[in-house]
Structures
1.
Amino acid sequence: MPMLDELMPWGTAPLRLGRPWVMAPDAASLQARWDALVRAEGVEQDTLFGCTRARTPRSAASQLPGQTTGTSRFVREDGPCPVPVRVSHGAFDEQWLIPDHRLIDVARPELWRVADERQLFVVEHCWVAESAGPAVSVSAMLPDGHSPAGRPGRIRPLYRRPGGIEPNLAPGLLSALGSRYGREVDADELVAWIVAAAEPSAAGCVVPLPADPRVWLSGVELGRRMTQIQLRGARGGERPRLPGGRRPYVRAAVPARPDAITYDAEDEVLSLGDGRISPVPAEAWDFHAGGVRMLELWFEHRTAAAEPGTLEAIRPAVWPQEWTSELLELITVLALLGELRGRQDELKVGPEITELPGVLPPPTAARRPASVLDHHEEGPEGQFALL
């Protein structure tokens, strides 16, 4: 069976932040952390910064594509925090990131160059033995690429250039599939099939291709629905909603500092400390990815203790209302995907396409990013960036 690495040849490793404080579940904390770092000097600033071999306050770094952050060495920085950007974290979480290359060890500029309203990112999750969950997830926003279990995954943009130009697919793949199925096949259709049919394995993500066009159409229809749910209204779609009577509501307000998350399967109640949310379908609570329960991981990202005196310890003093709204949406997303899991299991590929001569394996050039010069990019210390 073909590997995802062959069908979508260009991919990158995850972003390597180098310091956890540059990402947070809320934007206000990032701005407060920036201000604290700018005020600090000397050894104190180095300690707060979290120096690595790749980055210190004295490192030179170019501007991230599409961003307007400074390029002078951070040790001389005295301005306001750059506007945080929303990014996809792990499989189904969304957080905020300071888009400043001086603060990030490896930011993958090639991904920022192609991130726009037409782009779609396929994130291949690391394989975990004897664990249930999706092999890939999709996002319209830039993903950090880390799998739920914390292991490195792989980020594969759908398009190699901004504006939805040049699909990141093996050359000739779409026309070859179109000939097999007797109809035109486009890039979005292939991604929908991948979302529905991809299988994790120790060797990488496997994507069986059916010989029967009817099976293909069935899988594409399922994958489109799964993709729409994960995009949460991006690319002109509708935000996911459960049917009336099944939508989760807050029955008791989440306390200022919830200390635990638990689930009552009989009453379909999710508890965050003394807070209560229901109904929460079992499909949402039981949803795992990379061997990790998604709702527990989401809660941990917002409540795990931070070392006092670090920038990461700068966080909301009380539980923000926005987090409750985000949790309700996440429950909806996981519940809807959980309901479709049965249809995924029933998707019988049957006879498969085992050879695509002249298409697979893809040429080496297809594995490299395209040359993209659409963004003005400033180099270190205000120099012109050489791309």
2.
Amino acid sequence: MNESQLSDLLSLGEGFTTEFKKSGTSNMGREICAFANATGGVILVGVANDGKICGVFDHNSLKSEVRTTARSAEPPIAVEVESVGDVLCVTVPEQQGKPYSFGGRFFIREGASSQQMSRDEIREFFYKEGLIHFDETACDRFDLKRDLNAEIWERFSRRARLPKGVDMLSTLQNLHLVRDGRMTHAGAWLLTNDITAISISATVTCALFRGTDKVQILDRKEYKGDLYSIYEDCMAYLQSKLNTELIPTATGREERPELPVEALREALVNAIVHRDYRSTANIQIYIFHDRVEIVAPGGLPAGMREEDLGFKSVPRNPLLFGIFQRMNLVEQIGSGIRRIRMMCRDYKVDEPVIEVSESWVTVTFRRPVMSQPESQPELQPELQPESGAESLENRIIRMLYQKSMSKSMLSSELGQKEISGQLNKVVRELMAEGYVEYTIPEKPRSRLQKYRLTEKGKKIQEKSEK
């Protein structure tokens, strides 16, 4: 630092990164610690509160005291000490070993002063710096004996691809979902039937709007099962509301959703595994006439910058991320955003726009021109039967009673030029109610996938024929 730079600092006065100290090293450890826990700063010894230089004597002795004080912090803090005229300048660079304490206490810079942190502030600081991961903490609302039953365990085992017959408790411990006899939050979110009993804001809200703003809502659903089920329900909702084009091929017609489904999946999974579960807000999926928005609370985790997106990843919930990897829902760490952009380019649609703030991350997919005109806000023409006409549900059941069919075949039989949102919705509802099932259940996204009636569905059709 030279005299010109010192003059500039003096003219600005005390602030978030500058502290004036008239003399000595009294409270020096507190100030150094506070700057180290923030973004760094400069302490000017020999300057009065009003910014006037009063100077200090015996700089060498004072430099030694400052360095000893900095080394006494836990962990030791690196500082730069130099003389500029009569002023001793103590520079605390931004540190990498946060949090720092001095004399067993933690300090933080608030405005132009240094304050001791309370217990809650220390805890919050640890979370923000990524030193404590909420998904790894014990969940007091989950009781292993009361809340974990055979049905939930079997469902989780299947999704996590666990070997048959493994011991439940020891396996959960090996997966680090149970620690010291208590379920972690990550485990509770995955092994529940209602996530609001664990974390009330861990739900996902899906909404369909008329036009390009939120003035008029056409449909809204909130999903609150376990995190895997929430993911599946949200994808079903998206696919039921978006358009699907039928592309002629040599062997028939191929279904082509207006947006790449895999890119939407990746964006949704990213939102689920990287959101801040301590936030009182939930994930929101908005479908507008011209775009789809996936909004996750929490901003970027500690250690991540906006320019890092697509190149590196710092999981906010590493335990949850690891289980989602095991469930085959995410690829290797750090590849999500890059894969989304690549899939959109390959699909010949616009790459998504990613907006980051302190509290939110929003991924916006621009819907292509094939979307319906503004005068048709329902996204797809609804197949509403005229009075006395056969319902769409009954028509689908009747057709599948004859033979297994893909959605494109069903659409063609119904006289549609493309697969409507209503058809998507009804097929998924029939599956959820147990009337229809996949012909290739182990590969839900197979291009050869068709639908067939279950025994329950066949009974409905046979009853109607009588």
3.
Amino acid sequence: MADPQHGPRGFTLIEVLVAISVMALMALMAWRGLDGMLRTQSGLQSRADEIRTLQAGLAQWQTDLDQLAQLPGTPSWDWDGQVLRLTRRTAQEPPSSTGAKASVQVVAWTWRRDPGRPGGGDWQRWQSPPLTQKRDWQNAWVLSQQWGQTPSDATRQGQVHIHPLAGWQLFVHRGGSWTNPLSSDAVTAGNNPASPGTPPDGVRLVLTLPPGPAGAGVLSMDWVRPTLTGAPS
């Protein structure tokens, strides 16, 4: 109640300081909550981006194998223990509809060691331009091998970093069983030796993911040749 002799009573200094302290505490709590929400959103976005990148890489791996081209005198598959080289059909309209010659591409996949990357390395892919001449294919086949062994500025032009990896392994399916692609069993199906450069009936890709937004651990994916009757077991 106001004092009739002195007019309305105002806030004391202590009351003002208490009010300011309460408002400052509420603002701090609100900021911490907002900061936590932003950090969570950023983490979820980073995780989603990493997963999409990995999924795109796996989809490209599947597509490259699905589009393997077996041409006379041209290997469609080569694995040296470090780099997988493939000859695949290009994604274009049929030659009959465009008047252009059918073309192929040379693609290569590898895990390249890099101590500065999570897990110590990167899963990488290289591809050539569309090719219609045998000599152009031969040049691209050699370039893909050079890229896998000692990449240069010229060969890096066709390179794409897919995802950080701690390592990878490949297994092939021939003659009714999975085996190491460099073993003698991998090039022999029963008593019938497979021709050099002939793609296997199936390929098992094993990726070791380092700790990161997309998760960690071993990821395995099997591919089966589309023309194969009966899936490998």
